[in-house]
Design goal:
It contains seven helices and 17 strands. It is an alpha+beta fold and 288 residues long. The chain has two domains: 126 residues, 3-Layer(aba) Sandwich (Rossmann fold); 139 residues, Probable inorganic polyphosphate/atp-NAD kinase, domain 2 (Tumour Suppressor Smad4). A six-stranded antiparallel beta sheet has the order 7-6-17-14-9-10. A six-stranded antiparallel beta sheet has the order 13-12-11-8-15-16, with no helix packed on it. Strands 2-1-3-4-5 form a five-stranded parallel beta sheet, sandwiched between helices. The longest helix is centred in the first third of the chain and has 14 residues. It is globular, with a radius of gyration of 20 Å. The relative contact order is 0.15.
Length: 288
């Protein structure tokens, strides 16, 4: 069903962002679709009224995000409990989470106005830090949770459990716990597998492990994953979707579970996850 109102959110540092916002706003309004601008996006084009992302989530039907995958991650972090469908338009090359690049803006508007798109429901991570009886929810994550060392260049030890059962104690630079969406990000760089968006699993990938037999482990997304530092003398940090790191105090645990909410990510007909993977990773097949 076509939206009655859309929210426009742009990465304001991208070249050409202001021109694209003005063009999309005009195109949507000509088609009878109401447009609400996010605060920084409104300032970018000199508009008088802008809304914060959480309010856009409450009062629009679809969020059109102009930027890259990182821009979408930032929007998800700011939506909080107002998770809304996201249609991504990349300013630059095609990303894993975006539908089209900016050169196809007219096509994007036409698809939205006609309702010619569907949603890929993307799992989110719920991240808590604490100890039994004293848990504090930190944030939702779309891509991954990274537990890593501080500035000192030395390995850290991380005791890891899945559903209460010990998995192993990693001696590594860190650990990445990724959703299928995040499997093409840091986890992939660390040697993890690519997971299809609807595979219903998470992946635990060590970063430069000391023991070479420590490899990625795939677990059901109904699992509870717990990680804690084994040594009190070395700082350990938790980073959710690349945001500001949180200090993991010794004696406290990171608990990661599937969130109750999902992110409805817009998908155009004829554009599959694997077609994007082939393009992004330059899988052109054998030349023989």
């Amino acid at each position: 069903m076509p939206p009655e109102a859309v929210g426009l959110i742009a990465h304001t540092g991208k070249p050409g962002a202001a021109e694209l916002v003005r063009r999309l706003q005009a195109d949507f309004e000509r088609a009878g679709v109401g447009v609400r601008l996010e605060d920084a996006t409104a300032r970018l084009i000199g508009a008088e009224t802008g809304w914060d992302v959480n309010r856009l989530g409450r009062e629009t039907d679809l969020l059109v995000v102009l930027g890259g995958d990182g821009t979408i991650l930032n929007v998800v972090s700011r939506l909080g409990d107002q998770m809304k469908p996201v249609f991504g338009i990349n300013i630059g090359s095609l990303g894993f989470l975006t539908c089209l690049n900016s050169s196809a803006a007219e096509e994007a508007v036409a698809a939205i106005v006609r309702g010619e798109y569907s949603y890929s429901e993307r799992a989110l991570l719920c991240v808590e830090i604490g100890r039994e009886g004293d848990w504090r929810e930190e944030a939702l994550g779309l891509n991954d949770v990274v537990i890593s060392r501080g500035e000192i260049s030395r390995l850290i030890r991380l005791r890891t459990r899945v559903n209460g059962e010990p998995l192993t104690e990693y001696n590594a630079d860190g650990l990445v716990i990724a959703t299928p969406t995040g499997s093409t990000a840091y986890s992939l760089s660390a040697g993890g597998p690519i997971l299809a968006p609807q595979s219903g699993v998470f992946v635990i990938t060590p970063i430069c492990p000391h023991v070479l037999t420590n490899r990625s482990v795939i677990v059901e997304d109904s699992s509870t994953i717990e990680v804690e530092a084994s040594e009190p003398d070395h700082p350990v940090y938790v980073t959710i979707d690349g945001r500001s790191p949180l200090n993991l105090e010794f004696g406290r645990t990171v608990r990661i579970r599937k969130a109750a909410k999902t992110l409805p990510l817009a998908v155009l007909p004829g554009v599959s996850f694997f077609s994007v993977v082939r393009q992004k990773l330059k899988w052109s097949g054998s030349t023989i």
